[in-house]
Amino acid sequence: MFGAVPASAEPPPPGCERVPIFGLDPHVRTICDTPIQPDGSWTRFRQQWWIGGKKSTCGGQYYQGGNCPPWLENDVAPERRSPVDEYIVTWDTIPPGEPGHVDGA
């Protein structure tokens, strides 16, 4: 269910959602669900994606977005993806902060 498409490049495929998570560790969370089984459960796949960007350690300071003075070197941080988590979900066991079943319709 997870392809090589960057997390923000295109709409997610049916049965998936992408949600930006803001805060001290901003990232994009992608969740994909299989169809609901007769017992009411489904399999969920979850992955976190951190966007790369420019950063620098100018004078021991961290400058996000390359806002370091132009005479100091900026490094580009690569994007990172977490391993894909796979787990069984029911309506009674949806993890906090996650949606109900992501419908593929």
Main attributes?
105 residues, 5-stranded antiparallel beta sheet, 36% strand, elongated
Tell me about this structure.
The protein has 105 residues and is an all-beta fold. It has a domain of 47 residues. It is 0% helix and 36% strand. It contains no helices and eight strands. Strands 1, 2, 3, 7 and 8 form a five-stranded antiparallel beta sheet that branches. Strand 1 and strand 2 form a beta hairpin. The chain is elongated, with a radius of gyration of 18 Å.
Short overview:
It contains no helices and eight strands.
Task: Give the SSE map.
Layout (H helix, E strand, L loop, with lengths): L15 E6 L5 E7 L8 E9 L2 E4 L6 E2 L10 E3 L2 E2 L3 E5 L16
Antiparallel strand pairs: 1-2, 2-3, 3-7, 3-8, 4-5, 4-6
What's the helical proportion of residues? under 10%
Series of secondary-structure elements, N-terminal to C-terminal: EEEEEEEE
Q: What is the number of helices? A: 0
Overall spatial form:
elongated
Q: What does the average pLDDT come to?
A: 76
Q: Quote the beta fraction.
A: 35-45%
Structural class: mainly beta
Low-confidence stretches: none
Give the beta-strand count.
8
- Rg, rounded, reads 18 Å
The N- and C-terminal alpha carbons lie at a distance of 15 Å
Largest sheet: 5 strands, antiparallel
